[in-house]
Every structure is written in structure tokens, then in C-alpha cells.
Design a protein that fits this description.
7 helices; elongated; about 5% strand; mainly alpha; about 180 residues; two-stranded antiparallel sheet
Length: about 180
């Protein structure tokens, strides 16, 4: 096997294929591509603002990352298991696009920093999506309830049939549970 620059140091060859498969997370974390690229763009802009990289280097990095985002979203990006994770896949492609300037993106940031940032951004975005879906469900419950104010059904207490209630009342209970949570 050819030398893998990711492993560097004393290693002259890449790890065994089995080790690469065990260690690779790209199958899972490629879903973090948008967050990873967004975080990297923000990081590059911070590096430029602090005078750590030049405005020209920042522009190269941002344009390269924007191109990668487009490639992924259009389905043209090839994720490589030997690059292990989303960060190394993006970084390797960025280096092909803009050259050695790509290496400056890791200044003042570790891959662990990227993982934490990507994950927090992913969860925040997923929560926003879930909240939107819950609000849509609540609207649907209210619309359905308006049509069933006279529809009678049994209410339940401790899984036992109790007093009669309207189906609208039952739907409103779920509306309120969702609102509470």
C-alpha cells in the first residue's frame, strides 16, 4: 500500500484495510457535510479577520469550500473510506482545488473541534426541522378537530373506558401535549 500522509510520523504505509474499515466514520458523518463546510467557512473568515491568513487565502478557501458543497449537493463528490471522515474528505478535495493553502484552514482548530461544532450545528438544525414539523402537525390537529366537535368517542382513565368526549377534545389533548413538550 502507498504511504498515507494522514498517518505520517513513523509509519511508512497505510493501516491494514481492516483497520481502515474499523476506523472510518465517513459512512455516518458524511451527513454532516453542510455543517462541516459551513463551520470551515466561518473559521476561514475568522482566521482572515485576525490576520492569520490573508484575505486572498480566505477567498480561495471559501470559494473552494463552496465548490465542494455544490459538488456534494449535486451528487458529484466521491467520498473515500481511506480518508476516514468528512473532515479529511473535504480537506483532501480542497487541497486538490486550491493547493497547499488548504492546509492553513486547520490553524487554531483540531478535528475534535470540528466534530463538536459539526454535531452541535447538526442537532440545532435537526431541532429546528422537528419543531417546524410539530407545528405543522398541531395545525393539522386543529383543522381536523374543527370537523369533529360533535363526533363522540369514549374517554379513557387508566386504560379504562370513562366518560364520553368529543373527538375534537381528544385531538386537542395531543395538540396541548405537543405544545407543552
Amino acid at each position: 500500500m502507498a504511504k498515507n500522509s494522514m498517518w505520517g510520523g513513523r509509519f511508512n504505509t497505510s493501516p491494514a484495510l481492516l483497520m481502515q474499515k474499523i476506523n472510518a466514520s465517513i459512512g455516518f458523518d458524511k451527513t454532516l457535510y453542510r455543517e462541516d463546510i459551513t463551520g470551515s467557512i466561518a473559521h476561514a473568515k475568522m482566521l482572515s479577520k485576525q490576520g492569520i491568513i490573508s484575505a486572498n487565502e480566505c477567498e480561495l478557501i471559501v470559494n473552494g469550500l463552496t465548490q465542494i458543497l455544490k459538488e456534494i449537493e449535486e451528487g458529484h463528490f466521491v467520498f473515500k473510506i481511506e480518508l476516514e471522515d468528512i473532515h479529511m474528505n473535504v480537506e483532501a478535495r480542497l487541497k486538490k482545488i486550491i493547493g497547499d493553502v488548504a492546509g492553513k484552514l486547520h490553524t487554531a482548530r483540531s478535528r475534535n473541534d470540528q466534530v463538536a461544532t459539526d454535531f452541535k450545528m447538526f442537532v440545532r438544525n435537526a431541532n429546528e426541522d422537528i419543531i417546524t414539523l410539530i407545528k405543522d402537525l398541531q395545525k393539522s390537529l386543529l383543522i381536523l378537530a374543527k370537523d369533529h366537535t360533535e363526533t363522540v368517542m369514549p374517554g379513557f382513565t387508566h386504560l379504562q373506558v370513562a366518560q364520553p368526549i368529543s373527538f375534537a377534545f381528544y385531538l386537542h389533548a395531543y395538540y396541548e401535549m405537543l405544545r407543552r413538550d
